[in-house]
Amino acid sequence: MADNNNILHQGLVPAQKALQLVLEGAAARDFEPVLLKETNGRVLARDLAANRTQPPFPASAMDGYAVRHTDLSPSKTVLEIIGEAAAGHPFAGELTPGTAVRIFTGAPVPDGADTIIIQENTTRNGDRVEVLQPADKGKFVRPAGLDFAQGDVLLKAGTVIDAQSLSLAAAMNHAELPVWKKPVVAVLATGDELVLPGEQLGEGQILASNTFGIAAIARQAGGSVIDLGIARDTLDDLTARIGKALDNGADLIVTTGGASVGDHDLVKPAMEHFGFTFSFVKIAMRPGKPVMFGKARIGGKERRFLGLAGNPVSSLVSGHIFMRPLIRLLGGYDAATVMPVSGKLEVAMGQNDEREDYIRATARRNADGKLLVAPFPKQDSSMLATLSKADCLIIRPVHAPPAAVGDGVPVILLRNV
Fold first, then answer.
1. Which residues pair with 101 in a beta bridge?
2. Which residue from 129, 127, 91 is spatially nearest to 110, judged by alpha carbons?
């Protein structure tokens, strides 16, 4: 039950419960027509039917001669060549008894012809061709509609467009495709202590690194990113930048820093200024305890907010765990593609405590394709260099017992292995 601060869940919320709350009700809402050549990697929002039959006419599958099967004899046959057919240049006439047409791959089979004799099985002499070896009726003739017919639904809603489906959609005569809109993700760093890489560092200041990684995760997940820069520790600056994000159609606002409850942590009151109601403000996980999540209906659509820790490792780990699957769902993708998979330990692990742990680890495949994972010996949340080497995160549930080499563990992949 919500209290005066609009918090649904007080205290440390279990990480899996937090993920459930973040993903609850998340789905793609709006689709748009996009030029075919720009749809690679996008998600089809509607079933797609063919606008034409493929091939639209009987076509030759080989170079050779189009003939009437009734003209062929078991021994050698000599036919008169009356023309030529090439792809895009069909023969205009019709075969009559005793005639043949020189034909090339992809060309329409002339009227009257029903069989193709490949050129290797012929000898040409002027305007005559000798068939050295007969063929079965219909040999090397691709009938109209061999691949598909007009009206056939060949690409289903939910298909992630790739090279194969792009080519198929083109062959179906679609110049643009209805795809789910990319969710707009606004990314904001907060804190007076932050400066951008390349700028002069003042006393007590540090480089802003979180948002570069968060924006990269968002783009890789299928989001369109708005960079809101760095907000200073004032309510006015925060609300001005958040307002800009909302005015620019942000579906999700992600902040780094200011997610705790100190005097200078103004992110929560800034979001409440716009009517956001919070589901949780702290999670029982390591790294990444100070994570906030809330929603508001603004401008006729639901907006979401994810407040991440200022610690770079905590921020990026939380981004992979919560933001990435959320963006996948909002973009029409199957969130299961970024959810945990099973791996086997190459290094024993001790018992876990009262927080769900996300252990940075390397990963590899053995000869059988099984995923083998090995945690780094040091897991301090300040070690960004270690995270950059990690292929995955090993999930250690609350109070997980000791795990031996070869034991199965849930794993979140950070890159393809």
1. 66
2. 91
With beta carbons less than 8 A apart as the criterion, state whether 27 and 181 touch.
Answer: no
Q: Report, in angstroms and rounded to the nearest whole number, the Rg of the chain calculated over CA atoms.
A: 31
pTM of the model: 0.88
Q: Number of folded domains in the chain?
A: 4
Structure tokens at 102: 């020189």
Residues 6 or more apart whose Cβ sits within 8 Å of residue 44: 155, 156, 157, 158, 159, 160, 161, 165, 177, 178, 179
* 5 located within any domain: no
What is the CA 186 to chain-centroid distance, rounded?
Answer: 19
Query: How much is the pLDDT for 7?
Result: 56
Are 279 and 8 contacting, i.e. CB atoms less than 8 angstroms apart?
yes
Q: Could you tell me which of 24, 41, 22, 42 has the C-alpha nearest to residue 33?
A: 42
Q: What is the pLDDT of residue 4?
A: 42
**How large is the average pLDDT for residues 301-311?**
94
Per the CB < 8 A criterion, the answer to whether 403 and 346 are in contact is no
Q: Are residues 273 and 379 in the same domain?
A: no
* Residue 148: both structure tokens together: 């598909």
Q: Do both 84 and 159 map to the same domain?
A: no
Residue 101 domain boundaries: 59-142
pLDDT class for 8, splitting at 50, 70, 90?
Answer: low
If residue 286 lies in a helix (H) or strand (E), which one and from where to where? Answer: strand 283-286
CATH number at residue 313: 3.40.980.10
Q: How far apart are CA 64 and CA 61, in angstroms?
A: 9
Q: What is the pLDDT of residue 198?
A: 85
CB atoms within 10 A of CB 182: 23
> Environment class of residue 247 by beta-carbon count within 10 Å: exposed (0-12), middle (13-18) or buried (19+)?
exposed
Mean pLDDT score, 144-153: 97
Phi-psi region of 237 (alpha: psi -120 to 50; beta: other; left: phi over 0): alpha
pLDDT confidence bin for 337, thresholds 50/70/90: confident
